[in-house]
């Protein structure tokens, strides 16, 4: 349970391009910024951790995306619609 909280906060910060500090303030019921940093500093093999996380993400990819191509539209102008 505790490991999930550290992973949740770290993944949230990374995926949002946010800091651990802000993420710890934003999310409820997660460890403090200092606790998260303390446990991240104990990791010796980030390559292995990255491999495990990527494998976990791959296992959760929806079947429609995994088995084919989807049409996608992206607004690169960044101008809001009125």
Tell me the layout of helices and strands.
Blueprint lengths: L1 H15 L3 H7 L6 H9 L4 H14 L3 H4 L16
Protein model, in words:
With 82 residues, the protein is mostly helical. The chain has one domain (2-66). The chain is built from five helices and no strands. The protein has helices at residues 2-16, 20-26, 33-41, 46-59, 63-66. Helix 1 (2-16) packs across helix 2 (20-26) and helix 2 (20-26) packs across helix 3 (33-41).
The pLDDT mean sits at: 80
- Which consecutive residue ranges, at least 5 long each, have pLDDT under 50? none
Q: Outline, from the CA principal axes?
A: extended
Compute the number of helices: 5
Structure classification = mainly alpha
- Encode the helix/strand succession as letters: HHHHH
Give the terminus-to-terminus CA distance.
45 Å
Helix fraction, binned, reads: 55-70%
Largest sheet, strands/sense/barrel: none
In angstroms, what is the radius of gyration?
A: 17 Å
